[in-house]
Description:
Endonuclease-I, alpha+beta, globular, 3-stranded antiparallel β-sheet
Amino acid sequence: xxxxxxxxxxxxxAALAATLVSVTLPAITATPAxxxxxxxxxxxxxxxxxxxxxxxKSALHTIISSQTKISYDAVWNALKVTDQDPANxxxxxxxxxxxxxxxxxxxxxxxxxxxxxxxxxxxxxxGTSAGPGTDLHHLRACDVQVNSTRGxxxxxxxxxxxxxxxxxxxxxxxxxxRNADKGDVARMILYMAVRYEGDxxxxxxxxxxxxxxxxxxxxxRLAILKQWNEQDPPSAFEERRNDVIYNTYQGNxxxxxxxxxxxxxxx
Length: 267
């Protein structure tokens, strides 16, 4: 009668199990579900594709800094094109409220729409001069009174309901846009942070986690903006707007509309 030694049996079983694992569980490399590809990846973005972190931010800065600047007066007519209501070509769609309003009602009176700086002018003191003050990638048509309510506040969740902008909320130092505009705001703010890096006549604009930034060249809160970017993906309206700004006015693109996953890749 043969005898099976327990120690030898255990060693043989362990070796067999290791062999089976190596055969049945190969390494798997998957592309993240959020990754996107665009027609511009092999041309406009070719020097950025495949990079992450500061390398990606630097590459995108170089790419989007090649830009035609327009005057603040020219912004009026540009917004009538970039923010045109797809359902009514005589109107613009207003940020924060989604209201469709006649293009002719641009001005400073109650019932008018005006030029909202999503990156507040005071956060870096760039005013309305050609450059960050006239960059269409963060300028939007907005109801005069709603624009006044937003003021130069940072971005965060919560507060009291904003009159004239259902779904938007505000408190003493922050503003929360309605859900349909959350991603738009996030991608505009982070575009500005990449475009303006302090290597020209303007301040180095950066996101941070503060909601009391005042006049320093920062806008918060980054964690909330990242959430909004995920929560509200780029819409057809945003994509069309990006194309119009690129093809007709400035010659540069907002990379976070084309590649929203680059927000997480950088920050």
